[in-house]
């Protein structure tokens, strides 16, 4: 099938559902005629602002791995399809961080850049998240976040130089169409809200010198709506505590803090049957939730998030839509069986619009 035929098919499916959901069924025929005509003339079509906004929301609603989907309708959609220069992209990314952070009361936000044109990316973001810590392999061992080893090396090859603390914030890194290399820009410190991790009753936790950034802004996924590919469309929600406390700071291949946390807690880390890892995980996760709350940064615990997801399931049923989900991702990494999610199964069919992984431009 020709790519314009695929595009037309995808456009039809999307416009149908989108306009029905928006109560605009009377406009479907006219809009489809216009799109058909536009595809015939130009080889593609352009979404209206309304289609773009609702499409991005639907894509969130269809994100099988996301437990936070109850709030899909509240997504703040920023339309930046008009950008032409690297400065405009940079400023739009800075603005995303500022608007989404919102002084700590995080706003789920997506910034949508121009879609691919004839398969060519207009803007190519190289960051995994807009805010992320660098990682270095040194003679003295790991520094920072091992998940960022490769990207950090790419940044340094391009002339950026990290301070080599465990929490250096990587620069923005993106490439404009026609440019051979990406450009990088350091994030202004004032833009990035970070939270030092302390524990409500175990003072020694502060000695671990842990911190994390406030807003997770995924920047490397492709948003597909009605056959158009928005390869650059960074989006964020707020953190669920376990992402930080049970994974980023705990995984052996990330910050690997469980033994060190056991040490400051004064508990022995030698007997599996003591369940010291489990004990440390609980305290570390309490510390994360407590610290974000203390610093006025939105966060949700996994029990509340699971309850919200239950409401999403009911909401979808009431709307007459089939629920899809990925059980392996929806269950939280601590106490999974204490949530309802653990005790049922989910249909992992991929429904469009959706967010997709894409190949990394480096590698
Ligand atoms: N798990 C990722 C991280 O720890 C973030 C993924 C998106 N999370 C979210 N709450 N929207 O950085």
Automatic annotation (TrEMBL):
Entry-linked Pfam families: NO_synthase
Transmembrane segments: none
UniProt domain Nitric oxide synthase (NOS): residue ranges: 65-72
Keywords: Heme, Iron, Metal-binding, Oxidoreductase
GO terms (BP aspect): nitric oxide biosynthetic process
SUPFAM superfamilies per UniProt: Nitric oxide (NO) synthase oxygenase domain (SSF56512)
Gene3D superfamilies assigned to the protein according to its UniProt record, in alphabetical order: Nitric Oxide Synthase, Chain A, domain 1 (3.90.340.10), Nitric Oxide Synthase, Chain A, domain 3 (3.90.1230.10), Nitric Oxide Synthase,Heme Domain,Chain A domain 2 (3.90.440.10)
Cofactor: heme
Record GO terms (molecular function): heme binding; metal ion binding; nitric-oxide synthase activity
Catalytic reaction(s) noted: 3 reduced [flavodoxin] + 2 L-arginine + 4 O2 = 3 oxidized [flavodoxin] + 2 L-citrulline + 2 nitric oxide + 4 H2O + 5 H(+)
Miscellaneous comment: This protein is similar to the oxygenase domain of eukaryotic nitric oxide synthases but lacks the reductase domain which, in eukaryotes, is responsible for transfer of electrons to the ferric heme during nitric oxide synthesis.
Record's function text: Catalyzes the production of nitric oxide.
Subunit and partners: Homodimer.
Annotated PANTHER family: NITRIC OXIDE SYNTHASE (PTHR43410:SF1), NITRIC OXIDE SYNTHASE OXYGENASE (PTHR43410)
Entry protein name: Nitric oxide synthase oxygenase
Taxonomic source organism: Bacillus velezensis (strain DSM 23117 / BGSC 10A6 / LMG 26770 / FZB42) (Bacillus amyloliquefaciens subsp. plantarum)
Lineage: Bacteria, Bacillati, Bacillota, Bacilli, Bacillales
């Amino acid at each position: 099938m020709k790519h314009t035929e695929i595009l037309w098919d995808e456009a039809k499916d999307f416009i149908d559902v989108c306009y029905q959901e928006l109560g605009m069924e009377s406009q479907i025929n006219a809009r489809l005629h216009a799109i058909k005509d536009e595809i015939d003339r130009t080889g593609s079509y352009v979404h209206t602002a309304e289609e773009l906004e609702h499409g991005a929301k639907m894509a969130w609603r269809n994100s099988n791995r996301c437990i936070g989907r109850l709030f899909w309708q509240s997504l703040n959609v920023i339309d930046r399809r008009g950008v032409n220069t690297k400065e405009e992209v940079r400023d739009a990314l800075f603005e995303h961080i500022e608007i989404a952070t919102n002084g700590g009361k995080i706003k789920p936000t997506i910034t949508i850049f121009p879609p691919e044109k004839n398969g060519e990316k207009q803007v190519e973001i190289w960051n995994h998240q807009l805010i992320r810590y660098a990682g270095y392999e040194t003679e003295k061992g790991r520094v920072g976040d091992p998940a960022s080893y490769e990207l950090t090396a790419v940044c340094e090859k391009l002339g950026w130089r990290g301070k080599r603390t465990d929490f250096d914030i990587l620069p923005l890194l993106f490439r404009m169409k026609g440019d051979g290399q990406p450009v990088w820009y350091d994030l202004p410190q004032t833009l990035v809200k970070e939270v030092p991790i302390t524990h409500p009753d175990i003072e020694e936790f502060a000695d671990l010198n842990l911190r994390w950034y406030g807003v997770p802004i995924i920047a490397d996924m492709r948003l597909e709506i009605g056959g158009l590919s928005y390869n650059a469309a960074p989006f964020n929600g707020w953190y669920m505590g376990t992402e930080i406390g049970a994974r980023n700071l705990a995984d052996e291949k990330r910050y690997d803090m469980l033994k060190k946390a056991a040490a400051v807690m004064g508990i022995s880390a030698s007997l599996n049957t003591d369940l010291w890892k489990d004990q440390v995980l609980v305290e570390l996760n309490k510390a994360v939730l407590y610290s974000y709350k203390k610093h006025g940064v939105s966060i949700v615990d996994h029990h509340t998030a699971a309850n919200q997801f239950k409401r999403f399931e009911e909401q979808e049923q009431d709307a007459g839509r089939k629920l899809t989900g990925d059980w392996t991702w929806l269950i939280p990494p601590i106490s999974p069986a204490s949530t309802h999610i653990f005790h049922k199964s989910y249909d992992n069919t991929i429904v469009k619009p959706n967010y997709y992984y894409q190949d990394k431009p480096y590698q």
